[in-house]
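Q: Can I see a sequence and its folded structure?
A: Here is a first one.
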Amino acid sequence: MKTQYYTATSIDGYLADEDNSLDWLFQFGEIEEIEGVNEEYSRFIDQVGALAMGSTTYEWIIEHENILENPEEWPYEILAWVFSTRELPVVDGADIHFVQGDVAPVHADMVKAADGKNIWLVGGGDLVGQFHDHDLLDEIILSVAPVTLASGAPLLPREITTPPLKLTNVQQQGDVFAVLTYDVQQSKMG
């Protein structure tokens, strides 16, 4: 069982532009039609038993997929935790827990719910950073797109230098993505 951060990023390390847009990513057409993407995502999601996301990510999914009007379009069949200090709209029929505060006790609940499968940290970067701060992040899987954004929502707003990440896999998907997989070496927290 691993806690994984799996996301797309620009070469210069942004998840979204300064307008919180992913147009830079969608310019490549239907992402799942890029060679290797569908197979890799299917393999990944089959191993996931629970997921977490921040409120900005949740709101982006709801808005861009028109989920409130079409709740059957909620993209996840597994239990989801949404971290927010605000009250957010609820997707009818979706298995979602709204939580706030320290990620550590929530992670313990996620581990139980995942029942031996992996936990996917969907985003955003600061939420993933909170898991890292508690030594609860095991792996980072980045689909690096061939664009630079210069500003926007940072991939992971934390300094991770000692110990450094350990590159474990590199994969090419079409002529678009370089997929980089890193093991997160745990710090020696007391």
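Q: Show me another, different protein.
A: A second, unrelated one:
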Amino acid sequence: MTESTQGRTARYEGETFRREDWYGDELAEREYVDCEFFDVDLTEATTRQVSFTNCTFGNVRFNASRHTDSAFVRCTFTRCNFFEAEFVGCKLVGSVFDQSSLRPLKVLGGDWSFVGLPGADLRGITVHGVRMREADLTGANCTDAVLADVDLSGAQLNRTRFTGCDLRGSDLSALDPTLVERTGAIVTAEQSIVLAQALGFEVRPAR
């Protein structure tokens, strides 16, 4: 570990943390690069302006944790638990979730572009005002979720389930209505025009 001369920012690089108990800990202004976390308990922990880059998380408990203005860039989460976790203004660009429990999860603002969530169970989660450009949601189950004001441009949405999902205000330009489950999905009038055009309809004003 190296620290700045002011002692405010701690940097950890290439370290492995195993079976650590960080329950309820408050982490701030730290930087982790190429680190590994296995069986770490982050239940009810909080992070603020903490940066994780190219890190691996295995069987880590993020239950009821709160993350504000933090970054998890190009990280891998395997068999992690995010029960009632919250991310506010966080950056998760290029991160991948594998066999992780993500319900219920709340994401408010931030950048989740290029995130990998193929086949993820996202039922009932809340995502609002988030950038998810070119995210991989192939086969994800977003039933009854809220994905409002989300930038989904270029996202992979093949076989994604949007049954009962609130999609109002989101960019649906990458959505092919014939390749997703959409019964009861909620959209605005403006979005319905985009979807109609995706189906080949030419939308004109009434005579």
